[in-house]
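re: that complex we talked abt at group meeting.

here r the seqs, copy pasted straight from the sheet so there may be weird spacing, ignore it
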Amino acid sequence: MCIYRAMVTMAGTATESESLMRRAADGDEIAFARIVDAHHADMSSVCFVVTGGDVELTEEAVQSAWPIAWRKLGTIRDPERLRPWLISIAVNEARQLARRQRRGRVLEISVARDGSATSMDPGAHAGDIDLRDALAHLSPSDRALIALRYVAGFDSTELARATGMSPSGTRARLARLLARLRSELGDG
Amino acid sequence: MDDMNTFERRLADRVRSFAKAGVRPVDSAALARAVAVGHPRRARAGSAVRRFGLTLDRREWAVVLALGLLVILLGGALLVGGSLPTSTLLDTSIPVRPSVGQPAVVGPSTTPAATPSPTSPRLLWTRASLEEDWPARVRLEPAGGVAIVRDLAIDQDGPPVLYPDPVGDVDASIPWIDIKELSISGSRTTLFIVCEANVTPVVDPAEQWIAYGVVWDTDRDGVADLRFGGDNARATDARRVWITELHSGRTAVNPGGGFFDETFYDTFFEVDGPSENWGGARLKFGGDSTGGGGISGGMHSPFYVWASVIQDGRVVATDYAPDTGWLDPDPPAKP
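got the structure back, here u go
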């Protein structure tokens, strides 16, 4: 595994994402590892918002997204589309998982098993808790819109592509969400 | 408007700051390795296409695909209209409710039709179906035969273990239940049922009722004991999963997509699928390890996987993996 890891590190400084994508699409695990390395954190941060701050669901969503990306990487040709495409897959997974929040008891068990889920210091993250509460009142789809816009930095065209809505529809929905969050969070 | 712009900027900062808490370190190489091993790809047709200089841009591909889809739809309509696979229709001899002592042939309840017929039960999906058991039957086992059990040799810390299943053994017009591979995580908590094709778009169960699941032999006697399943009722935003104790017919159903029932089966069970992202479904098993259930806390008993589809009110096909015998994720230690 060490040799494998070293190969990943040495896999060239090739900045041409297109070559990386093509190699990964052809089954090159090292190229794929570099794509994982480049995008995993982005995908995690976006999914964390979509799941309303659930670490376990976030990890599950992102780890579920990678096999899908691995299988379908060959369908992406434009390197600039790679990041939004990967994030969209992860968000879709996170949204599906978050929809099933009725399984409250299971989450309790997960927290008990995984101390990391409770490691956040409430005193140091009061603002986070307010935001977490406000996000919890939104649907997973609305949280996805917030995450894609403010964490992933999607513009309205990319938002539209990721959500299946029209660009104007996403703008209108975002405006409504902003107004709602403003009333819940105050003026920030 | 300025106030709103100011608020939006502050919100963006707060959301970005909040989002950072979700980033955990990841071993990219190990993850890529696990994904590649766990989800092998076929040789890409695209390479051959490029080799012959037949590269097309996205719009041209869309036209080609649209034409291809049209041909498939027309051909499929002719085929389906001409010859439905009558040999795989629901066996109407299966009792409506399973009875004790007939574990190998027990059948679930059916959704009562408006005008039920004793010889041809219609299994039309309605909202009331959410309260009913899935109507696919368990696999028939050879009478008096010795159960074949394959050790999956799962390594707790290793990559997912794959079990390939032959494709083409169900009607080609419903490839989303043609199981081609099972992938079982090292932790034995996640099972991917990978089928020949995606369900795109995810269909309404009233049009095509699809379900995936697992049958367990919890006491390792070669006879099915529990059946887990989940279906595509999510098209109505009410996805459900269920567990049936095959010896008694007792069933726990949850329309929420996953549940934990400590007093019944002591197992958390969740199904994700069918999916527009991959063909098949993902089943997750967890639970309280203090319980006495045979599969509590993951997959520990011999099992086989099933996928079924109902069209026009009838079970038209079921694929099993494996078709005979059992897969053992956690064989007992040899003395």
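couple things i noticed - Residues 258 and 270 of chain B are 4 Å apart (CA to CA). Helices of chain B lie at 2-19, 28-38, 45-51, 58-82.
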